[in-house]
Amino acid sequence: GAVVSQHPSWVICKSGTSVKIECRSLDFQATTMFWYRQFPKQSLMLMATSNEGSKATYEQGVEKDKFLINHASLTLSTLTVTSAHPEDSSFYICSAPDRSGYSNQPQHFGDGTRLSIL
Amino acid sequence: KQEVTQIPAALSVPEGENLVLNCSFTDSAIYNLQWFRQDPGKGLTSLLLIQSSQREQTSGRLNASLDKSSGRSTLYIAASQPGDSATYLCAVRLDNQGGKLIFGQGTELSVKP
Asked: What share of chain B is helix, strand, coil (3-state, %, to 5)?
């Protein structure tokens, strides 16, 4: 079946570092991907919608200059957390619909990236 | 604004028991509802997807129902097993354009042997 691969799975870095997270659709093309953030014991909150070949759409309250999203191909979206600080420590997870624009397909999620900023 | 609520937040049951997890949403204008399982520190595994026109979906010991007019969905787990222990999330999809999901807070299930 369709698989979404996310890398890395775990990152620990110093405050001020920029961190890039990759999300790949392995056996299907995804013109749209979604980036979510999950704090401990909380649910997933949508951060942004990544659109292939165009600018990402950010949810209210999410800083576009801090969370840079690039969707340069039909199988890859990247999220870069720029100048990360301890409050950015969270679980970041991406998803892609199996066929973009069709509501009868389930969402497929990556395994997530646990980001810890010291 | 669509809000999704799951009750209870946590549930502990003995092995073999049948159980029901609840999900409610405030805006009935949804395209579908999806139930997921999340193991600690892991990503999401899709369990069941119910289209807005459907009433229920079944997969093995799992049965999910949807009552769109009342804004409710339930996930029924039959003959629970310790391996069912995880957090269960429901999420609604609002539109047919791209497919962003609104998630509930989850129910943390523990099945004791």
From this structure: 5, 55, 40
